Amino acid sequence: MRDHRRCVKAIEGASRGPVTPVERLVVATLKQDGPMPMQVLVDRLAHELYLDALRRGGGILDIGLFGASLFVPDVVAELEAGNGTLWKVERE
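Structure (tokenized):
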């Protein structure tokens, strides 16, 4: 997934609002920081989800051994699923 040529940007006036926790993070991040390379966004969101899991007791489940990379597939799947609805993934 290390494709640094893809950029994610929010769709102004999207037909619906974010529903899932990842969608909310994507929309909030893009609103705050604007368009960004997909890999940067994936890494940032995976890290945020990892920290949230630790705060909720994920360390007990040894989530600390896997780190933020554990959340990368979920973030990528949600970014692809929301493409064209809440944000656009484009080639730079």
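The CA atoms of residues 50 and 68 lie 5 Å apart. Helices lie at 21-33, 38-55, 63-66, 72-82.
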